[in-house]
Specification:
The complex is a heterodimer of chains A (321) and B (357).
Chain A lengths: L9 H12 L21 H9 L3 H18 L36 H37 L1 H15 L3 H11 L5 H28 L2 H9 L3 H37 L11 H9 L9 H28 L5
Helix pairs in contact in A: 2-11, 3-4, 3-11, 4-5, 4-7, 4-9, 4-11, 5-7, 6-7, 7-9, 8-9, 9-10, 9-11, 10-11
Chain B lengths: L1 H10 L9 E14 L5 E16 L4 E5 L6 H8 L7 E6 L2 E2 L5 H10 E4 L13 H11 L9 H11 L16 H13 L5 E5 L7 H18 L2 E6 L2 H7 L2 E6 L2 E7 H6 L4 H8 L6 H6 L30 H5 L8 H4 L8 E2 L14
Parallel strand pairs in B: 3-8, 3-9, 6-7, 7-8
Antiparallel strand pairs in B: 1-2, 1-4, 4-5, 9-10, 10-11
Helix pairs in contact in B: 1-7, 4-5, 4-6, 5-6, 6-7
The chains are: A mainly alpha (321), B alpha/beta (357).
Pfam family, one (chain B): oligo_HPY
Organism (chain B): Streptomyces iconiensis
Keywords (chain B): ATP-binding, Nucleotide-binding, Transport
């Protein structure tokens, strides 16, 4: 058997640790505990190890890093004011200094595309955080306590799940007077949480049935302790996976709503609203650039987040692959 | 402590000492309900249906029985992981079934559990140090904060693991090593009783002996009382001082290991023992195998009277009407032989051909 005798001293143990880690752990953080050679890898650091070697993750990560940078500081690559427009230059094609040309209102398309990233990233990230928090809270409660809690929350989930999101958007958002980014985010959170709640409920129920939760209970652990130390760390992976994949779709959803005229309103710059403006009166037939660039930006952004979600899923939940 | 356990081995523990755990008429029914929103009860799975036994300090009580007979439910009831439907569990004279809060936590310090599956009983997101140290987090009075790392390393050493492994994660260990970690966690609070629910059935045969021997050695060292649940009759005989045989939520027969293995009087025990593989071909030739017919009846709808009557070759009309009590059969009371032990059968008798090597 593989069990080295305890009295055998660290000799055998070191050998074992050595042969296990070997060539696999190339770099990675190695704080090196005293005596024990190197720190053992947790499941989280295993997942990170997988991720950092996944080309899909690296490409998506670079794209997203770039998106985040230009959302924070759009001035870095687009110095002009996106709202200073000149009708005289309406629909002019691309030229030096104005690579993407001008739209119907005579605004610089390049500047608007760059400034539009902030809206999309904000809506995507905030909706995802909101959905993840609300969804895992409600789903976690249902899964952990079961019984009446579960019955109530599950039925509520079913009701919200049944609302078609675009139709719901047309109804709810058209009733609101002025819509900011936060109106749209709240709407997405309101209709998006059931998806995460279902996943979280299932994950919590699965984790709850493990013997280590029973072991903690047998030791006298409190509900909070079991939840925080034992259930959450083992149930959080599927929630992270669904949320990351959903992030891309929320960005697309915001664009859809803005395209339909129930999303963001000027002066907020949104790719969806710009696409909508471009398709008004079929103007893109004469000037395809006003549709092409915002649409391309939107597609690339959504793609980047969905690729990130895929990579995260592969790393955290190999069974789903 | 060592003396005590030695003594219990010799006396067959039926001496005059106080039992540390007294279980009386323990019942656990799991309700069967129908309907999604408005649930109504349509019956109950009678997982444990009136079980009584004592556990004495320093002894090992083995519980055997086939899958689904309620062994694990008994363990969960003892651990207060499930509330019994009826009956009492007295720990040192105090009924622990209705305790809650602080009082329950105090009792839990003294009764700990070792689980069946070493792959699900350790949290994969925690280091070995955190897993074995968790009992100290929950019961901070046992070990002062600065002392914990040392205590955890001591425990690793006690169960035969390298104390250097403290920062490793469970997935880096083999099944046998994981079970040792589980045992170390169970020992951390210095309990008096350890309930082991099939602690070796998930392990390789080669490792089973190591773990069982470790448990025996720890028992002598710390004066533990074990409640050892298993379906492997040979392992139970190896470790137990007394053995109880369960069938369909009831205790069929209970006695010292010699009484049960050499002088079984309940037909179910005899059938079980006749199924134990015997390595010696000559003995194997001579013995008679009792092959039971049919399946175990559903615990939701157990047979009337004796639970075993539907599969018993001795069953008569009386067995369906009258539930046999778990008591020393009158025939053997005065005999003074090994057959004089509690057996829940109207027609208890010894049978020569079932003796296990």
């Amino acid at each position: 058997m593989t069990e080295p005798p305890a009295i055998g001293g660290p000799g055998g143990a070191m050998e074992l640790a050595e042969s296990e880690g070997g060539g696999l752990e190339g770099k990675g953080p190695r704080p090196g505990r005293k005596g024990s050679g190197k720190r053992a890898r947790s499941l989280w650091s295993d997942a990170w190890h997988d991720l950092s070697r996944n080309p899909v993750f690296l490409i998506a990560g670079l794209l997203i890093l770039f998106l985040v940078l230009i959302s924070l500081w759009p001035g870095l690559i687009a110095g002009r004011d996106p709202l200073s427009c000149n009708l005289g230059r309406s629909l002019s094609p691309s030229s030096t200094g104005h690579w993407f040309g001008f739209d119907t209102q005579g605004c610089d398309v390049y500047t608007r595309v760059v400034h539009g990233a902030r809206t999309s990233v904000t809506v995507g990230v905030c909706s995802t955080v909101g959905v993840a928090v609300l969804g895992s809270l409600l789903g976690g409660l249902a899964g952990f306590f079961g019984g009446t809690w579960d019955a109530l929350i599950s039925r509520l989930t079913d009701i919200f799940f049944g609302i078609p999101i675009v139709l719901g958007g047309l109804v709810f958002l058209s009733m609101t007077g002025s819509r900011s980014v936060w109106t749209v985010v709240s709407f997405i959170v309101l209709l998006g949480w059931p998806q995460v709640a279902r996943i979280a409920r299932g994950a919590v129920i699965t984790a709850k049935q493990n013997d280590y939760v029973q072991a903690a209970r047998a030791l006298g652990a409190s509900n909070t302790r079991m939840m925080v130390r034992h259930i959450m760390p083992n149930a959080v992976a599927p929630v992270i996976v669904t949320s990351t994949i959903a992030l891309g779709t929320y960005i697309a959803l915001e664009a859809t709503l803005s395209y339909l005229g129930v999303g963001l309103q000027p002066p907020t710059i949104s790719w969806g609203a710009d696409i909508s403006a471009a398709s008004e009166g079929m103007q893109f037939r004469n000037a395809p650039h006003i549709l092409l660039y915002p649409a391309a930006a939107l597609s690339i952004t959504v793609l980047a987040f969905i690729m990130l979600g895929d990579a995260v899923r592969d790393a955290l939940d190999p069974k789903l692959r | 402590m060592t003396e005590q356990s030695e003594q219990s081995r010799k006396n067959g523990s039926e001496g005059k000492r106080e039992p540390i755990l007294e279980v009386r008429d323990l019942v656990k029914h799991f309700p069967l309900s129908k309907g999604v929103l408005l649930k109504r009860q349509v019956g109950a799975v009678k997982a444990v249906d009136g079980i009584s036994f004592d556990l004495y300090p320093g002894e090992t009580l083995g519980i055997v029985g086939e899958s689904g007979c309620g062994k694990s439910t008994v363990a969960k009831l003892l651990m207060n992981l499930e509330r019994p439907t009826a009956g009492t569990i007295k720990y040192k004279g105090e009924d622990i079934t209705r305790l809650s809060g602080r009082a329950l936590r105090e009792v839990r310090r003294n009764i700990q559990m070792v689980f069946q599956d070493p792959y699900t009983s350790l949290n994969p997101r925690m280091t070995v140090g955190d897993i074995i140290g968790e009992p100290f987090d929950i019961h901070p009075e046992v070990a002062p904060k600065g002392d914990r790392r040392r205590r955890v390393q001591e425990l690793l050493d006690v169960v035969g693991l390298n104390p250097e492994y403290i920062n490793r994660y469970p997935h880096q260990f083999s099944g046998g090593q994981r079970q040792r970690i589980g045992i170390a966690r169970g020992l951390a609070l210095r309990p008096e009783i350890i309930v082991a629910d099939e602690p070796v059935s998930a392990l390789d045969v080669s490792v089973q002996a190591q773990v069982v021997n470790l448990m025996e050695q720890l028992q002598d060292e710390f004066g533990l009382s074990y409640m050892f649940i298993a379906h492997d009759l040979s392992i139970v005989r190896h470790i137990s001082d007394r053995v109880g045989v369960m069938y369909l939520g009831k205790m069929a027969e209970i006695g010292t290991d010699e009484q049960i293995y050499e002088h079984p009087t309940h037909p179910y025990t005899q059938a079980l023992l006749s199924a134990v593989p015997v390595p010696d071909p000559e003995i194997r030739e001579g013995r008679e195998r009792i092959v039971l017919e049919g399946d175990v009846p559903s615990p939701a709808n157990p047979p009337s009277g004796c639970r075993f009557r539907t599969r018993c070759w001795k069953a008569e009309a009386r067995c369906a009407e009258e539930t046999p009590l778990l008591a020393v059969p009158k025939v053997f009371e005065a005999a003074g032989t090994g057959a004089a032990h509690a057996s829940a059968c109207h027609f208890a008798e010894e049978r020569a051909a079932v003796v296990v090597a």
